[in-house]
Design a protein that fits this description.
The protein is α/β, with parallel strands linked by helices and about 375 residues long. Helices cover about 50% and strands about 10% of the residues. The protein has a 7-stranded parallel beta sheet with strand order 3-2-4-1-5-6-7, with helices on both faces. Strand 5, helix 8 and strand 6 (about 185-190) form a beta-alpha-beta unit. It starts with a helix and ends in a 41-residue tail after the last helix. Residues about 1-10 have low confidence and may be disordered.
Length: about 375
């Protein structure tokens, strides 16, 4: 199934699909990866996937990863050198690994012609991968190079209560809108608990309300509690979200539902090619246009600053030239002859105002007013 689905109508090889497994701690991500790895190897002919382990703190892995973060980064040494706890150590190790992820992409590109699927097993602490810069870098880098699908693993026994079900759905919704990638809900551990009630809650809002009522979320006066009202409101908001999701019940223990999961993966590939790729091309084109616009603005600004600097020097030169001209003009008399201002002209004669006479008064003295 996997090999035939990976061929186009012209017979040319498609790029492999990258499956990023994400889920809460204890939801069974690593066991799920081991199960789909076994399923692909059991096909005729076998179609072994390319596997990447991104959990630096895991002790034993039930499959043989092609790329293992533990080969390049010592989790305990990171904790010791940076004085970190377990979660901080995992986050720092993933950040260090992300700085060299271009080399990982090169290795994936080299193997892309020989495999149909590539599987990423993420750390158990979901927030470390989904809300960290390194997780976003890895997700965006993979999604820009290969068809990529996010498989959100749900611990079905722990989601049987309406409150925990709503918490899982809210987290799934946040990851979907953050990555904008094709999304598959994988209800794991169906051999322990049937997922049918949860699937019914997704299909019918009234069934979820009935489940809330049966839980007895009411106060002493018989009125719905705040949490009951909140979950009712959120379920109304998520009703549209459920319609766009593909939910697949599987059992990593027995292998039930794995073929249906790969059918959902192939449908997600089509969604990636028809919706995500055009959006990626549009965003890339916008970024290129913004970059060109920024370069033009910078070039214009540099040219303006250069012209401003030239004008400033020119105005300063003109200022000093005008001062020199004024000085030169002052050094000439009205006849254009040069005046030697270093010559001493002698003392200026003093005038005795007491001996001043009025003009035309025949020597009559001027009576000055007293102060």
């Amino acid at each position: 199934m996997a090999s035939s689905s990976a061929l186009t109508s012209e017979g040319s090889k498609k790029k492999p699909v990258v499956i990023i497994t994400i889920g809460m701690a204890g939801s069974g991500k690593t066991t799920f990866v081991q199960r789909i790895n076994s399923y692909l190897n059991s096909l005729s002919p076998p179609s072994p996937p390319y596997k990447l382990n991104l959990d630096p703190a895991v002790i034993n892995v039930p499959f043989d990863p092609n790329i293992d973060i533990r080969d390049t980064i010592d989790f305990k040494e990171v904790m010791k050198q940076y004085n970190l706890g377990p979660n901080g150590g995992i986050l720092t190790a993933l950040n260090l690994f992300a700085t060299k992820f271009d080399q990982v992409l090169n290795l994936m590109e080299k193997r892309s012609d020989t495999v149909d699927y590539m599987i990423l097993d993420t750390p158990g602490q979901i927030e470390i991968f989904t809300w960290s810069a390194s997780g976003a870098i890895i997700t965006d880098a993979v999604a820009s190079s290969f068809p990529t699908v996010v498989a959100y693993i749900i611990d079905t026994p722990r989601t049987a209560a309406p409150a925990t079900f709503m918490s899982n759905m809210l987290y799934a919704c946040s990851i979907l809108y953050k990555t904008k990638l094709p999304f598959i809900l994988v209800f794991n551990k169906t051999d322990v608990t049937s997922p049918e009630p949860m699937l019914e809650w997704m299909r019918d809002f009234e069934e979820f309300q009935k489940a809330l009522t049966s839980e007895g979320h009411r106060d002493a006066d018989g009125e719905p509690t705040y949490m009951n009202s909140l979950m009712n409101s959120m379920s109304l908001v998520l009703d549209e979200f459920y319609k766009e999701l593909k939910a697949v019940p599987v059992s990593s223990y027995t292998g039930a539902g794995i073929p249906e999961f790969f059918k959902a993966v192939e449908a997600a590939r089509q969604e990636y090619e028809t919706e995500y790729l055009p959006e990626l091309a549009r965003v890339t084109q916008e970024r290129a246009s913004d970059r060109k616009l920024a370069e033009k603005k910078e070039e214009s600004l540099n040219r303006f600053m250069k012209d401003l600097s030239v004008d400033s020097k020119r105005s300063q030169f003109e200022k000093w030239s005008s001062v020199d001209e004024e000085v030169e003009e002052d050094d000439y008399d009205d006849d254009g002859e040069y005046i030697d201002r270093s010559e001493e002209k002698g003392p200026v004669p003093m005038i005795d105002i007491g001996k001043v006479r009025k003009p035309g008064t025949a020597g009559e003295h001027i009576n000055w007013p007293k102060p």
